[in-house]
Write a structure and sequence with these properties.
40% helix; globular; six-stranded mixed beta sheet; 18 strands; 527 residues; alpha/beta
Length: 527
Protein backbone atom coordinates (compact mmCIF):
# COMPACT_ATOMS: atom_id res chain seq x y z
CA UNK A 1 0.00 0.00 0.00
CA UNK A 2 1.32 3.41 -0.90
CA UNK A 3 1.85 6.04 1.75
CA UNK A 4 0.03 9.33 1.16
CA UNK A 5 1.26 12.73 2.17
CA UNK A 6 -1.03 14.56 4.58
CA UNK A 7 -3.03 17.18 2.74
CA UNK A 8 -4.16 19.29 5.64
CA UNK A 9 -1.73 21.36 7.69
CA UNK A 10 -2.56 21.85 11.33
CA UNK A 11 -2.03 25.58 11.15
CA UNK A 12 -2.55 28.27 8.55
CA UNK A 13 -0.53 31.46 8.44
CA UNK A 14 -2.85 34.26 7.53
CA UNK A 15 -0.38 37.06 6.94
CA UNK A 16 2.12 36.00 4.38
CA UNK A 17 4.33 33.41 6.10
CA UNK A 18 4.50 29.60 5.83
CA UNK A 19 2.64 27.04 7.94
CA UNK A 20 4.05 25.20 10.93
CA UNK A 21 2.83 22.03 12.64
CA UNK A 22 3.35 23.82 15.94
CA UNK A 23 3.68 27.57 16.54
CA UNK A 24 7.30 28.70 16.71
CA UNK A 25 8.59 30.57 19.74
CA UNK A 26 7.99 34.30 20.25
CA UNK A 27 9.25 36.48 17.40
CA UNK A 28 9.28 40.29 17.17
CA UNK A 29 6.55 41.50 14.82
CA UNK A 30 4.71 38.16 14.83
CA UNK A 31 1.47 37.64 16.73
CA UNK A 32 0.72 33.95 17.33
CA UNK A 33 -3.06 33.69 17.49
CA UNK A 34 -5.31 30.76 18.43
CA UNK A 35 -8.47 31.52 16.44
CA UNK A 36 -11.83 30.31 15.23
CA UNK A 37 -11.69 28.87 11.71
CA UNK A 38 -14.23 31.40 10.36
CA UNK A 39 -11.55 34.08 10.66
CA UNK A 40 -9.78 32.67 7.61
CA UNK A 41 -11.75 35.21 5.58
CA UNK A 42 -9.73 37.98 7.27
CA UNK A 43 -6.56 36.90 5.46
CA UNK A 44 -6.64 39.55 2.69
CA UNK A 45 -7.16 42.29 5.28
CA UNK A 46 -4.41 40.94 7.52
CA UNK A 47 -2.05 40.71 4.54
CA UNK A 48 -2.52 44.43 3.95
CA UNK A 49 -2.33 45.18 7.67
CA UNK A 50 1.06 43.47 7.83
CA UNK A 51 2.37 45.90 5.24
CA UNK A 52 1.00 48.89 7.14
CA UNK A 53 1.87 47.84 10.69
CA UNK A 54 4.74 45.36 10.39
CA UNK A 55 2.67 42.87 12.42
CA UNK A 56 2.25 39.41 10.94
CA UNK A 57 -0.56 37.26 12.31
CA UNK A 58 0.14 33.56 12.60
CA UNK A 59 -3.16 31.73 12.97
CA UNK A 60 -3.77 28.28 14.45
CA UNK A 61 -7.42 27.40 13.92
CA UNK A 62 -9.56 25.56 16.44
CA UNK A 63 -13.12 25.32 17.73
CA UNK A 64 -14.47 27.51 20.53
CA UNK A 65 -14.76 24.65 23.03
CA UNK A 66 -11.34 23.23 22.12
CA UNK A 67 -9.84 26.70 22.40
CA UNK A 68 -11.37 27.22 25.85
CA UNK A 69 -9.95 23.87 26.91
CA UNK A 70 -6.45 24.76 25.69
CA UNK A 71 -6.64 27.94 27.75
CA UNK A 72 -8.03 26.19 30.82
CA UNK A 73 -5.52 23.33 30.92
CA UNK A 74 -2.55 25.60 30.25
CA UNK A 75 -1.50 24.02 26.94
CA UNK A 76 -1.84 27.43 25.24
CA UNK A 77 0.67 28.99 27.66
CA UNK A 78 3.78 30.08 25.77
CA UNK A 79 2.44 28.79 22.42
CA UNK A 80 0.18 31.75 21.67
CA UNK A 81 0.25 35.46 22.29
CA UNK A 82 -3.46 36.05 21.70
CA UNK A 83 -6.77 34.36 21.00
CA UNK A 84 -9.38 35.51 18.52
CA UNK A 85 -12.71 33.77 18.73
CA UNK A 86 -16.09 35.00 17.57
CA UNK A 87 -16.86 35.53 21.25
CA UNK A 88 -15.10 35.11 24.58
CA UNK A 89 -18.32 34.26 26.42
CA UNK A 90 -17.58 30.56 26.81
CA UNK A 91 -13.90 30.95 27.84
CA UNK A 92 -14.97 33.61 30.33
CA UNK A 93 -17.41 31.15 31.92
CA UNK A 94 -14.55 28.70 32.59
CA UNK A 95 -12.51 30.12 35.49
CA UNK A 96 -9.16 28.59 34.53
CA UNK A 97 -9.57 29.89 30.96
CA UNK A 98 -10.87 33.31 31.99
CA UNK A 99 -7.82 34.11 34.10
CA UNK A 100 -5.60 33.82 31.01
CA UNK A 101 -7.57 36.42 29.02
CA UNK A 102 -5.96 39.85 29.01
CA UNK A 103 -6.73 43.00 27.03
CA UNK A 104 -9.75 42.42 24.76
CA UNK A 105 -10.38 44.66 21.74
CA UNK A 106 -13.59 44.20 19.75
CA UNK A 107 -12.89 44.33 16.02
CA UNK A 108 -16.23 43.59 14.30
CA UNK A 109 -19.59 41.98 15.03
CA UNK A 110 -22.19 39.65 13.56
CA UNK A 111 -25.48 38.52 15.14
CA UNK A 112 -26.69 34.93 14.87
CA UNK A 113 -30.01 34.99 12.97
CA UNK A 114 -32.32 32.76 10.95
CA UNK A 115 -31.97 32.79 7.18
CA UNK A 116 -34.86 31.28 5.21
CA UNK A 117 -35.19 30.58 1.51
CA UNK A 118 -37.58 33.25 0.22
CA UNK A 119 -40.39 30.80 -0.69
CA UNK A 120 -40.32 29.44 2.89
CA UNK A 121 -40.32 32.94 4.40
CA UNK A 122 -43.24 33.92 2.16
CA UNK A 123 -45.14 30.75 3.03
CA UNK A 124 -44.73 31.47 6.74
CA UNK A 125 -45.69 35.13 6.30
CA UNK A 126 -42.37 36.30 7.75
CA UNK A 127 -41.10 38.35 4.81
CA UNK A 128 -40.92 41.93 6.00
CA UNK A 129 -42.40 41.02 9.39
CA UNK A 130 -40.77 40.88 12.82
CA UNK A 131 -41.41 37.64 14.68
CA UNK A 132 -40.20 36.43 18.07
CA UNK A 133 -38.45 33.22 19.05
CA UNK A 134 -41.68 31.80 20.52
CA UNK A 135 -43.48 32.16 17.17
CA UNK A 136 -40.49 30.63 15.38
CA UNK A 137 -40.47 27.73 17.88
CA UNK A 138 -44.20 27.17 17.39
CA UNK A 139 -43.80 26.97 13.60
CA UNK A 140 -40.80 24.66 14.03
CA UNK A 141 -42.81 22.35 16.27
CA UNK A 142 -45.51 22.13 13.59
CA UNK A 143 -42.81 21.20 11.02
CA UNK A 144 -43.77 24.29 9.02
CA UNK A 145 -40.12 24.67 8.04
CA UNK A 146 -36.77 22.91 8.49
CA UNK A 147 -33.36 24.35 9.21
CA UNK A 148 -29.70 23.55 9.78
CA UNK A 149 -27.52 24.68 12.68
CA UNK A 150 -24.02 23.98 13.92
CA UNK A 151 -23.34 21.79 16.93
CA UNK A 152 -23.28 24.14 19.96
CA UNK A 153 -20.31 22.27 21.46
CA UNK A 154 -18.31 22.70 18.27
CA UNK A 155 -19.22 26.13 16.92
CA UNK A 156 -20.08 29.47 18.49
CA UNK A 157 -22.95 30.12 16.05
CA UNK A 158 -24.81 27.00 17.26
CA UNK A 159 -24.01 27.80 20.89
CA UNK A 160 -25.25 31.38 20.44
CA UNK A 161 -28.48 30.17 18.82
CA UNK A 162 -29.14 27.75 21.68
CA UNK A 163 -28.55 30.50 24.26
CA UNK A 164 -30.72 32.99 22.35
CA UNK A 165 -33.69 30.64 22.08
CA UNK A 166 -33.38 29.49 25.70
CA UNK A 167 -33.07 33.03 27.05
CA UNK A 168 -35.97 34.33 24.98
CA UNK A 169 -38.27 31.43 25.86
CA UNK A 170 -37.41 31.71 29.55
CA UNK A 171 -38.89 35.21 29.36
CA UNK A 172 -37.24 36.52 32.52
CA UNK A 173 -35.25 39.31 30.89
CA UNK A 174 -32.05 37.92 32.42
CA UNK A 175 -29.61 35.17 31.50
CA UNK A 176 -31.07 31.67 31.60
CA UNK A 177 -29.94 29.74 34.68
CA UNK A 178 -29.39 26.03 35.31
CA UNK A 179 -32.56 25.97 37.41
CA UNK A 180 -34.71 27.39 34.57
CA UNK A 181 -33.61 24.95 31.87
CA UNK A 182 -36.07 22.23 32.88
CA UNK A 183 -39.00 24.65 32.48
CA UNK A 184 -38.02 25.68 28.93
CA UNK A 185 -37.03 22.18 27.77
CA UNK A 186 -40.45 21.36 26.17
CA UNK A 187 -40.42 24.57 24.11
CA UNK A 188 -36.77 24.03 23.16
CA UNK A 189 -37.55 20.47 22.10
CA UNK A 190 -40.32 21.83 19.88
CA UNK A 191 -37.95 24.35 18.34
CA UNK A 192 -35.14 21.87 17.65
CA UNK A 193 -37.48 19.23 16.22
CA UNK A 194 -37.24 21.16 12.93
CA UNK A 195 -33.45 20.93 12.79
CA UNK A 196 -32.58 18.43 10.03
CA UNK A 197 -28.95 19.36 9.35
CA UNK A 198 -26.07 19.53 11.82
CA UNK A 199 -22.44 20.50 11.31
CA UNK A 200 -19.28 21.17 13.23
CA UNK A 201 -18.54 24.43 11.43
CA UNK A 202 -20.51 27.36 10.00
CA UNK A 203 -18.67 27.10 6.68
CA UNK A 204 -19.50 23.44 6.03
CA UNK A 205 -23.09 24.06 7.10
CA UNK A 206 -23.62 26.85 4.58
CA UNK A 207 -21.89 24.84 1.83
CA UNK A 208 -24.10 21.80 2.50
CA UNK A 209 -27.21 23.97 2.46
CA UNK A 210 -26.27 25.43 -0.91
CA UNK A 211 -25.33 22.05 -2.41
CA UNK A 212 -28.67 20.61 -1.36
CA UNK A 213 -30.57 23.60 -2.70
CA UNK A 214 -28.79 23.19 -6.05
CA UNK A 215 -29.42 19.42 -6.20
CA UNK A 216 -25.69 18.67 -5.88
CA UNK A 217 -26.08 16.72 -2.64
CA UNK A 218 -28.34 13.70 -2.01
CA UNK A 219 -29.50 15.09 1.35
CA UNK A 220 -32.99 16.52 1.69
CA UNK A 221 -33.32 20.24 0.98
CA UNK A 222 -33.45 22.47 4.05
CA UNK A 223 -35.61 25.61 4.25
CA UNK A 224 -33.14 27.69 6.21
CA UNK A 225 -30.07 28.07 8.39
CA UNK A 226 -29.34 29.54 11.79
CA UNK A 227 -25.93 31.11 11.31
CA UNK A 228 -23.94 34.29 11.54
CA UNK A 229 -25.51 37.16 9.62
CA UNK A 230 -22.16 37.55 7.85
CA UNK A 231 -22.21 33.95 6.60
CA UNK A 232 -25.82 34.25 5.40
CA UNK A 233 -25.10 37.52 3.57
CA UNK A 234 -22.03 35.97 1.90
CA UNK A 235 -23.94 32.97 0.57
CA UNK A 236 -25.17 32.71 -3.00
CA UNK A 237 -27.84 30.00 -2.79
CA UNK A 238 -30.12 28.93 -5.64
CA UNK A 239 -32.95 30.85 -3.96
CA UNK A 240 -32.33 34.18 -2.19
CA UNK A 241 -32.42 34.17 1.60
CA UNK A 242 -34.71 36.25 3.78
CA UNK A 243 -33.01 37.08 7.06
CA UNK A 244 -35.25 36.89 10.12
CA UNK A 245 -34.12 39.00 13.09
CA UNK A 246 -36.18 37.81 16.10
CA UNK A 247 -37.94 40.75 17.70
CA UNK A 248 -37.07 39.64 21.23
CA UNK A 249 -33.34 39.61 20.59
CA UNK A 250 -30.24 37.87 19.30
CA UNK A 251 -26.80 36.87 20.54
CA UNK A 252 -24.04 38.71 18.71
CA UNK A 253 -20.46 37.64 18.05
CA UNK A 254 -18.15 40.57 18.77
CA UNK A 255 -14.79 39.06 17.70
CA UNK A 256 -12.50 40.37 20.46
CA UNK A 257 -8.80 40.20 19.57
CA UNK A 258 -7.60 39.15 23.02
CA UNK A 259 -4.08 39.35 24.40
CA UNK A 260 -3.12 36.50 26.71
CA UNK A 261 -1.85 37.40 30.15
CA UNK A 262 1.45 35.57 29.57
CA UNK A 263 2.36 37.48 26.38
CA UNK A 264 5.70 39.30 26.34
CA UNK A 265 6.22 43.02 25.71
CA UNK A 266 6.80 42.57 21.95
CA UNK A 267 3.52 40.69 21.61
CA UNK A 268 1.69 43.31 23.68
CA UNK A 269 2.95 46.06 21.40
CA UNK A 270 2.06 44.04 18.27
CA UNK A 271 -1.43 43.35 19.61
CA UNK A 272 -2.08 47.02 20.33
CA UNK A 273 -0.72 48.19 16.98
CA UNK A 274 -2.79 45.67 15.02
CA UNK A 275 -5.98 46.28 17.01
CA UNK A 276 -5.67 50.06 16.59
CA UNK A 277 -5.15 49.64 12.84
CA UNK A 278 -8.14 47.31 12.41
CA UNK A 279 -10.38 49.79 14.22
CA UNK A 280 -9.58 52.74 11.93
CA UNK A 281 -12.63 53.84 9.90
CA UNK A 282 -11.13 52.75 6.57
CA UNK A 283 -10.33 49.27 7.88
CA UNK A 284 -13.75 48.95 9.52
CA UNK A 285 -15.37 49.70 6.16
CA UNK A 286 -13.06 47.24 4.42
CA UNK A 287 -13.91 44.51 6.96
CA UNK A 288 -17.61 45.23 6.40
CA UNK A 289 -17.44 44.92 2.60
CA UNK A 290 -15.02 41.97 2.60
CA UNK A 291 -16.52 39.79 5.35
CA UNK A 292 -20.10 41.16 5.73
CA UNK A 293 -19.47 41.75 9.46
CA UNK A 294 -20.67 44.92 11.13
CA UNK A 295 -18.32 47.70 12.22
CA UNK A 296 -17.89 48.28 15.96
CA UNK A 297 -16.40 51.77 15.82
CA UNK A 298 -18.90 54.65 16.26
CA UNK A 299 -19.28 56.86 13.21
CA UNK A 300 -18.76 54.12 10.62
CA UNK A 301 -22.04 53.88 8.75
CA UNK A 302 -23.67 50.48 8.28
CA UNK A 303 -23.88 49.19 4.72
CA UNK A 304 -27.22 48.80 2.97
CA UNK A 305 -26.93 44.99 3.17
CA UNK A 306 -27.86 45.13 6.87
CA UNK A 307 -31.66 45.19 6.78
CA UNK A 308 -32.05 45.42 10.55
CA UNK A 309 -30.01 48.27 11.99
CA UNK A 310 -30.90 48.15 15.70
CA UNK A 311 -30.65 44.83 17.51
CA UNK A 312 -31.73 43.73 20.98
CA UNK A 313 -28.98 41.75 22.66
CA UNK A 314 -30.11 38.76 24.72
CA UNK A 315 -28.29 38.00 28.00
CA UNK A 316 -25.73 35.22 28.10
CA UNK A 317 -25.30 32.65 30.93
CA UNK A 318 -22.66 33.94 33.31
CA UNK A 319 -21.53 30.68 34.90
CA UNK A 320 -20.04 27.45 33.67
CA UNK A 321 -22.75 25.58 35.60
CA UNK A 322 -25.49 27.22 33.52
CA UNK A 323 -23.63 26.64 30.27
CA UNK A 324 -23.00 22.98 31.12
CA UNK A 325 -26.62 22.42 32.14
CA UNK A 326 -27.90 23.93 28.89
CA UNK A 327 -25.54 21.88 26.71
CA UNK A 328 -26.28 18.69 28.62
CA UNK A 329 -30.03 19.19 28.22
CA UNK A 330 -29.62 19.96 24.52
CA UNK A 331 -27.68 16.78 23.75
CA UNK A 332 -29.47 14.34 26.05
CA UNK A 333 -33.08 15.56 25.98
CA UNK A 334 -33.80 18.34 23.48
CA UNK A 335 -32.31 17.74 20.05
CA UNK A 336 -33.25 14.81 17.85
CA UNK A 337 -30.97 11.87 18.71
CA UNK A 338 -28.30 10.38 16.48
CA UNK A 339 -28.23 7.04 14.71
CA UNK A 340 -24.70 6.21 13.60
CA UNK A 341 -23.13 3.15 12.03
CA UNK A 342 -19.34 2.88 12.39
CA UNK A 343 -17.66 0.88 9.61
CA UNK A 344 -14.25 0.13 11.12
CA UNK A 345 -11.18 -1.37 9.47
CA UNK A 346 -9.76 -4.23 11.57
CA UNK A 347 -7.53 -5.67 8.84
CA UNK A 348 -4.02 -6.97 9.49
CA UNK A 349 -2.44 -3.57 8.75
CA UNK A 350 -4.23 -2.21 11.85
CA UNK A 351 -2.14 -4.38 14.21
CA UNK A 352 -0.23 -2.70 17.01
CA UNK A 353 -0.55 1.02 17.67
CA UNK A 354 -3.28 1.52 15.09
CA UNK A 355 -5.82 -0.88 16.57
CA UNK A 356 -4.95 0.49 20.00
CA UNK A 357 -5.63 4.04 18.73
CA UNK A 358 -9.01 2.88 17.44
CA UNK A 359 -9.89 1.22 20.75
CA UNK A 360 -8.82 4.31 22.68
CA UNK A 361 -10.80 6.66 20.40
CA UNK A 362 -13.97 4.61 20.85
CA UNK A 363 -13.43 4.34 24.60
CA UNK A 364 -13.26 8.14 24.74
CA UNK A 365 -16.72 8.33 23.18
CA UNK A 366 -18.12 6.10 25.94
CA UNK A 367 -17.00 8.53 28.65
CA UNK A 368 -13.37 7.60 29.30
CA UNK A 369 -12.33 11.09 28.10
CA UNK A 370 -13.42 13.47 30.85
CA UNK A 371 -11.90 16.58 29.29
CA UNK A 372 -14.03 19.64 28.58
CA UNK A 373 -14.32 18.62 24.92
CA UNK A 374 -14.75 14.92 25.68
CA UNK A 375 -17.76 15.54 27.94
CA UNK A 376 -19.82 16.93 25.03
CA UNK A 377 -18.57 14.66 22.25
CA UNK A 378 -19.34 11.31 23.87
CA UNK A 379 -22.26 9.03 23.03
CA UNK A 380 -25.49 10.56 24.33
CA UNK A 381 -28.79 9.51 25.79
CA UNK A 382 -31.32 8.16 23.22
CA UNK A 383 -28.53 7.54 20.68
CA UNK A 384 -28.28 4.39 18.56
CA UNK A 385 -24.77 3.17 17.75
CA UNK A 386 -23.94 0.27 15.45
CA UNK A 387 -20.40 -1.04 15.04
CA UNK A 388 -19.54 -2.97 11.86
CA UNK A 389 -15.92 -4.17 11.91
CA UNK A 390 -14.44 -5.53 8.70
CA UNK A 391 -11.33 -7.16 7.27
CA UNK A 392 -11.43 -9.49 4.24
CA UNK A 393 -15.21 -9.55 4.58
CA UNK A 394 -17.75 -7.48 6.54
CA UNK A 395 -18.10 -8.58 10.15
CA UNK A 396 -21.28 -9.00 12.16
CA UNK A 397 -22.81 -5.63 13.12
CA UNK A 398 -23.59 -4.96 16.78
CA UNK A 399 -26.15 -2.31 17.76
CA UNK A 400 -26.39 -0.45 21.07
CA UNK A 401 -29.07 2.02 22.19
CA UNK A 402 -28.09 4.43 24.96
CA UNK A 403 -30.99 5.13 27.33
CA UNK A 404 -31.76 8.69 28.39
CA UNK A 405 -31.82 7.70 32.05
CA UNK A 406 -28.81 5.88 33.54
CA UNK A 407 -26.79 5.39 30.31
CA UNK A 408 -23.66 4.06 32.05
CA UNK A 409 -24.47 0.34 31.75
CA UNK A 410 -24.96 0.55 27.97
CA UNK A 411 -21.88 2.75 27.54
CA UNK A 412 -19.88 0.12 29.44
CA UNK A 413 -21.13 -2.54 27.01
CA UNK A 414 -19.99 -0.44 24.03
CA UNK A 415 -16.59 0.06 25.63
CA UNK A 416 -16.17 -3.66 26.39
CA UNK A 417 -17.16 -4.60 22.84
CA UNK A 418 -14.87 -2.10 21.12
CA UNK A 419 -11.92 -2.95 23.38
CA UNK A 420 -12.21 -6.50 22.07
CA UNK A 421 -11.64 -5.51 18.42
CA UNK A 422 -8.70 -7.46 16.93
CA UNK A 423 -6.72 -6.87 13.73
CA UNK A 424 -6.30 -9.56 11.05
CA UNK A 425 -7.04 -10.33 7.41
CA UNK A 426 -7.58 -8.19 4.32
CA UNK A 427 -9.55 -5.03 3.51
CA UNK A 428 -13.07 -5.20 2.05
CA UNK A 429 -14.04 -1.53 2.26
CA UNK A 430 -16.88 -1.34 -0.24
CA UNK A 431 -18.56 -4.66 0.52
CA UNK A 432 -18.71 -3.42 4.12
CA UNK A 433 -19.99 0.01 3.17
CA UNK A 434 -22.75 -1.52 1.06
CA UNK A 435 -23.71 -3.73 4.01
CA UNK A 436 -23.87 -0.61 6.21
CA UNK A 437 -26.51 0.90 3.93
CA UNK A 438 -28.44 -2.37 3.95
CA UNK A 439 -28.26 -2.45 7.75
CA UNK A 440 -29.56 1.10 8.18
CA UNK A 441 -32.19 1.04 5.44
CA UNK A 442 -33.81 4.46 5.06
CA UNK A 443 -32.80 7.60 6.91
CA UNK A 444 -34.88 7.95 10.07
CA UNK A 445 -36.80 11.27 9.93
CA UNK A 446 -36.64 11.53 13.74
CA UNK A 447 -32.88 11.00 14.01
CA UNK A 448 -29.63 12.32 12.55
CA UNK A 449 -28.57 9.23 10.62
CA UNK A 450 -25.01 8.81 9.30
CA UNK A 451 -22.19 6.37 8.58
CA UNK A 452 -18.58 6.77 9.71
CA UNK A 453 -16.06 4.86 7.57
CA UNK A 454 -12.52 4.51 8.97
CA UNK A 455 -9.79 2.65 7.08
CA UNK A 456 -6.00 2.65 7.12
CA UNK A 457 -5.51 1.05 3.72
CA UNK A 458 -6.65 0.68 0.16
CA UNK A 459 -9.42 -1.72 -0.81
CA UNK A 460 -8.05 -5.23 -1.41
CA UNK A 461 -11.07 -7.53 -1.31
CA UNK A 462 -14.51 -7.69 -2.89
CA UNK A 463 -16.19 -4.85 -4.79
CA UNK A 464 -14.39 -1.62 -5.65
CA UNK A 465 -15.31 2.07 -5.43
CA UNK A 466 -16.98 1.98 -8.86
CA UNK A 467 -19.20 -0.88 -7.72
CA UNK A 468 -20.16 1.15 -4.67
CA UNK A 469 -20.99 4.21 -6.77
CA UNK A 470 -23.36 2.14 -8.90
CA UNK A 471 -24.91 0.47 -5.86
CA UNK A 472 -25.41 3.82 -4.15
CA UNK A 473 -27.14 5.23 -7.23
CA UNK A 474 -29.61 2.33 -7.17
CA UNK A 475 -30.60 2.88 -3.52
CA UNK A 476 -34.02 4.35 -2.65
CA UNK A 477 -34.02 8.15 -2.22
CA UNK A 478 -34.36 7.95 1.57
CA UNK A 479 -31.33 5.67 1.83
CA UNK A 480 -29.24 7.99 -0.35
CA UNK A 481 -29.84 10.72 2.23
CA UNK A 482 -27.50 8.98 4.68
CA UNK A 483 -24.08 10.69 4.47
CA UNK A 484 -20.74 8.93 4.95
CA UNK A 485 -18.08 10.69 6.99
CA UNK A 486 -14.80 9.13 5.92
CA UNK A 487 -11.66 9.00 8.05
CA UNK A 488 -8.24 8.87 6.43
CA UNK A 489 -5.84 6.83 8.56
CA UNK A 490 -2.49 5.27 7.73
CA UNK A 491 -2.35 4.57 4.00
CA UNK A 492 -6.06 5.05 3.26
CA UNK A 493 -6.82 6.25 -0.28
CA UNK A 494 -7.52 9.97 -0.16
CA UNK A 495 -9.02 9.99 -3.66
CA UNK A 496 -11.44 7.15 -3.02
CA UNK A 497 -12.55 8.33 0.43
CA UNK A 498 -13.11 11.83 -0.96
CA UNK A 499 -15.23 10.29 -3.73
CA UNK A 500 -17.37 8.45 -1.18
CA UNK A 501 -17.82 11.52 1.03
CA UNK A 502 -18.72 13.77 -1.91
CA UNK A 503 -21.10 11.23 -3.44
CA UNK A 504 -23.03 10.72 -0.20
CA UNK A 505 -23.05 14.31 1.06
CA UNK A 506 -20.53 13.65 3.83
CA UNK A 507 -17.09 14.99 4.66
CA UNK A 508 -13.50 13.74 4.79
CA UNK A 509 -11.60 13.85 8.09
CA UNK A 510 -7.83 13.36 8.22
CA UNK A 511 -6.46 11.25 11.08
CA UNK A 512 -2.98 11.02 9.57
CA UNK A 513 -1.83 14.28 11.14
CA UNK A 514 -4.34 14.47 14.02
CA UNK A 515 -5.00 11.91 16.77
CA UNK A 516 -7.79 9.51 15.82
CA UNK A 517 -9.57 10.25 19.10
CA UNK A 518 -9.72 13.97 18.23
CA UNK A 519 -11.03 13.19 14.75
CA UNK A 520 -13.80 10.96 16.13
CA UNK A 521 -14.72 13.79 18.51
CA UNK A 522 -14.79 16.27 15.62
CA UNK A 523 -17.12 14.03 13.62
CA UNK A 524 -19.57 14.12 16.53
CA UNK A 525 -20.39 17.70 15.55
CA UNK A 526 -21.90 16.43 12.29
CA UNK A 527 -23.99 13.60 13.78
Amino acid sequence: MRKLIAALAVTVLAAGCGSDAEPAGPQPGVLRVLAGSELADMQPILDEAAQATGVQVKFTFTGTLEGAEELANGSADGKYDAVWFSSNRYPQAVPEAAKRLGNQVKIMSSPVVLGLAKPAADRLGWSGKRVGWAEIADAAGKKAFTYGMTDPSASNSGFSALVAVASALAGTGSAVTAEQIGAVTPALTQFFSAQTLSAGSSGWLSDAFQRRAAGQDPGAKVDGLINYESVLLSMKPAEPLTLVYPSDGVVTADYPLTLLTGANDDARAAHQKLADHLRTPDLQRKIMTTTQRRPVVPGVELGTQFAQRDLIELPFPATQQSVDALLSAYFNKIRRPSRTLYVLDTSGSMRGDRIESLRSALAGLTGADDSLTGRYRRFRGREEITVLPFNSVPGTPRTFTVPEADPQAELAKIKDYTQGLEASGGTAIYDSLKQAYTQLGAADPDRFTSIVLMTDGENANGSDVGDFQRAFGALPVESRRIPVFTVLFGEGSSDELTTVATLTGGKVFDARTTALAKVFQEIRGYQ
